[in-house]
Structures are given as C-alpha cells and as structure tokens.
Design a protein that fits this description.
The mean pLDDT is 97. The radius of gyration is 19 Å and the shape is globular. By secondary structure, it is of the alpha/beta class. The structure holds nicotinamide-adenine-dinucleotide and thymidine-5'-diphospho-beta-D-xylose (TDX).
Length: 342
C-alpha cells in the first residue's frame, strides 16, 4: 500500500512512520508543515529509505494535497497533523480551528474525490470532556463534550469525518486515544517538560492541586492500535484506545523525580489551567474484542525507558528548549505569565 501520513514529523506521527517501515512493506509519504512542533530530527536516518518520502506542506493546501494523492497513488491516509497542545489553544484558538477542523475537512474532500480506500482520523479522548472521580471511563458512545479550544477543534474534525462517511460514503475510521508518552515528545507536554526541568534542577510547575488524572499509554502501543484500525477496523467505526493506567499528575511527577533521583522539593504548585479537565479514562473493550489489541508496554518499564531516552538524547530537547520555545516558556511560566507561581 501507499500510505499518506500527515503530521509525520511530530511526536506520534514520527513514531508511527518508524513503526510502519519496520513492520510492513508499505510505502510512506509524510506530509508535514514543520510548525514549531514538527522536527525532521525525529526521523533522522530515514532520509534515504527507499519506501519513504517527505513533503513539506500544509494539509489546508488542497491543491498540494490533491497533487500528492495523485502522484504517489495514495491508497490510505493516516491523519495526525494538528495543533496539539491544550495550553497553546488558550492563547490562540483560531489556528486550532483552522488547522484541526478546516484542515481535516480539506483532506476529507480530497480523499473522497480520489476515492481512497481508507481514511484514519487520529482523534483524542479529550473530545469526551471531563470525568468525575468515580465514573466509569469513556466508551465510544459517551457524549462528546469538549472543554478546551483544542478539544473542541478535534471534536469538530472527528464529527466532520463521520459526516463524510455517512454522506459521501468515504471509508473512515476514527481513533480516540488517551495521553501518550515516549520518545520524541515535544518538551511542552507534561512528561518531557518535567523530565527536562528536573534534569536542569528547575521548578516543576504542577497546575492546581495536581490531582487531575490522565490515562497514560506508551506511544508504540498507540501506533500498533492505529495500524490495526487502518487494516482491520470496520468502516465508519470509532475505536477508543487506552492503557487503563490512571495517574494523578502529582503522583506521576513524583514517580519521574524518583526515577531521576531528584528531590520532590522541585515541585511547584502554580495556578490551574482554565477549563482544566479533571479526569480522563478510556474503556478500550471494543478494540480489544474486535481487533485483538492490547497494550504491550508495562507502565513502569515504559516510563523507565522514556526517562532513559531523554537522558540519552539531551541534545535533542536542549536544542528545542534553547530556540523559539524559550519565548513560549517565558510567556506561560515566567513573570506575569499564566502559570506564574501565585
Ligand atoms: P505534535 O504536535 O507532536 O505533532 C503535530 C505535527 O503536525 C507536527 O509535526 C506539525 O508540524 C504538524 N502540523 C501542524 N499543522 C500542520 C498543517 N497545517 N499541515 C501539515 N502538518 C501540520 O502532536 P502529537 O502529540 O504527535 O499528536 C498527533 C495527533 O495525535 C494529533 O492529531 C493529536 O490530536 C492526536 N493525539 C495526541 C495524543 C497525545 O497524547 N499526544 C493523544 C491522543 C491523540
Ligand atoms: O506544566 C504542566 N503542568 C501540569 O500540571 C503541563 C504542561 C501540564 N500539566 C498537567 C495538565 C494535564 O492535567 O498535566 C496533564 C497533562 O498535560 P498535557 O501534557 O498538556 O496533556 P493534556 O492536556 O492531557 O492533553 C494531551 O492528551 C490528549 C495531549 O497534549 C493532547 O494532544 C491529547 O489529545
């Protein structure tokens, strides 16, 4: 097959491309705009791979997308490209709506026109909103109730995918996964941010009371799930993906500090994120039962190897943190910033 991966220079997309090249004979075309989050170093060593091509471009550019689909005889799309950081969506919601929602619609239009065999929409558990502490996890039939501009833009895109399936007969599958962790995650997200700050003996900014809960899954387990859905998922269906692995942010940050041999005194409680979802948890019975998927990376081992990766690849994240990302960090965490310590 010829597969178009959008957003393949980001965290999950780059892991997915490595997974596909290692486990299948498929040819991969990676369409990525290289925003602040896109980094070709995530794909180092693949430049001359005979089954891989990188195209720098915007999913909102219909003319370019159409050309790539035709020239490369694309059979299927796996759509990762997005603005993905909730905190940034508080500052600039417009670009989230434009990239995540309109960008997805542009892709869907061209996928329909070119009669692609399959379109996989990488959605997120955040579309379901927030869970109360004792509630059962989200299932595929839970109502969509997004709370941040990021989550709303993903929910809108997710529903537009459904509409293209129902109205135009496009073969679409939608995945909704919980929080990912692993190598190549941009150091603005919780786990890599905390590892990097701890290694530099800087404060670890925990929002609110630190008791918000996330369900963590290793990125490789997510990639295997997406690939199974692409090959075996039923057309028009939604598949939840999650590790059944709930951690409060505070407990997780303490775990990271213990792994790194750093003191808990580095933890600094800062003002809460506006609209902060209290808890996410996923019921993944459907993908387990129908497609035989299950997570293979135990959390203790996954976290240990992720910490080891950030230790071994210090230059990767130091380069990011010394560049334009510094302005973001100062805006959000510095004096007068949203998360300045109260
Ligand atoms: P990321 O921010 O690391 O990567 C996003 C990639 O998309 C970057 O390479 C960026 O350059 C590219 N991109 C952005 N706008 C683009 C555009 N207009 N055209 C082409 N490329 C563009 O994100 P990630 O964490 O790898 O997430 C990937 C996808 O998975 C997203 O759709 C996200 O919503 C979803 N998701 C993420 C998680 C998670 O925990 N990270 C969980 C569930 C779902
Ligand atoms: O500095 C921080 N301090 C802190 O307490 C940061 C960056 C985060 N947090 C908290 C907020 C969340 O409760 O940690 C939790 C995780 O935060 P993020 O890493 O920003 O992830 P989250 O908001 O849960 O969203 C993620 O999971 C779903 C991804 O970024 C999304 O792309 C995905 O869809």
């Amino acid at each position: 097959m010829n597969i178009l991966v959008t957003g393949g220079a980001g965290f999950i997309g780059s892991n997915h491309i490595r997974h596909l090249l290692a486990t299948t004979g498929d040819r991969i075309v990676n369409l990525d705009l290289l925003t602040y989050a896109g980094n070709l170093e995530n794909l180092a060593g693949l430049e001359d791979h005979p089954r891989y091509r990188f195209v720098r471009g915007d999913i909102r550019d219909g003319e370019l997308v159409g050309r790539v689909l035709a020239e490369e005889r694309i059979d299927a799309v796996v759509h990762f490209a997005a603005e993905s950081h909730v905190d940034r969506s508080l500052e600039a919601p417009g670009v989230f709506l434009d990239t995540n929602t309109r960008g997805t619609q542009v892709l869907l239009d061209l996928a329909s026109r070119h009669r692609l065999a399959r379109f996989v929409m990488v959605s997120t558990d955040e579309v379901y909103g927030s869970l109360a502490p004792e509630s059962p996890g989200f299932s595929e039939s839970s109502p969509l109730a997004p709370n941040s501009p990021y989550a709303a833009s993903k929910a809108a895109a997710d529903l537009v995918c459904r509409a293209y399936h129902r109205t135009f007969g496009l073969d679409v599958c939608i995945t909704r996964c919980s929080n990912n962790y692993g190598p190549f995650q941009f150091p603005e997200k919780l786990i890599p941010l905390m590892i990097a700050n701890a290694l530099e003996d800087r404060p670890l900014p925990v929002y609110g009371d630190g008791l918000n809960v996330r369900d963590w899954l290793h990125v490789e387990d997510h990639c295997r799930a997406i690939d199974l859905v692409m090959r075996k998922g039923r057309s028009g269906e939604v598949y939840n993906i999650g590790g059944g692995n709930e951690w409060s942010n505070l407990a997780l940050v303490k775990l990271l500090l213990a792994e790194l041999g750093k003191p808990e005194s580095l933890i600094e409680f800062v003002p809460d994120r506006p609209g902060h979802d209290r808890r996410y948890a996923i019921v993944a019975d459907k993908i387990r039962g129908e497609l035989g998927w299950r997570p293979l990376r135990p959390f203790a081992e996954g976290i240990r190897s992720t910490v080891a990766w950030y230790l071994a690849n210090r230059s990767w994240w130091e380069k990011i943190r010394s560049g334009a990302y510094r302005d973001y960090y100062a805006r959000f965490y510095g004096p007068g910033g949203r998360y300045e310590r109260g």
